[in-house]
Automatic annotation (TrEMBL):
Residues 1-79 form the HIG1 domain. Keywords: Membrane, Transmembrane, Transmembrane helix. It comes from Sphingobium jiangsuense. The keyword Hydrolase does not apply. The chain crosses the membrane at residues 6-24, 56-76. It holds the Pfam family HIG_1_N. This is HIG1 domain-containing protein. The keyword Flavoprotein does not apply. PROSITE patterns: HIG1.
Amino acid sequence: MESMNVFLTILLLLAMAATLFMLIKGIVTFLRTSEADLRSGAAGPSASSLKQNKAMFGRILFQGLAILIIALLLMAKGN
């Protein structure tokens, strides 16, 4: 059982690192958005907006994974 806790802890750290990476990636993409991107009259979202949405989705996915791993660790601790 102890090896499972170590494995889940390592997975949790990886999920947390991935969440941080996606957060930073989204912020960098946001900061690189130019005024021309914002004022373009193109129909539909810009390439920058699509990248920001992809980064946000990845961040949410990794956060959810981290929460799931925490729940598993807490359930294992309760036994």
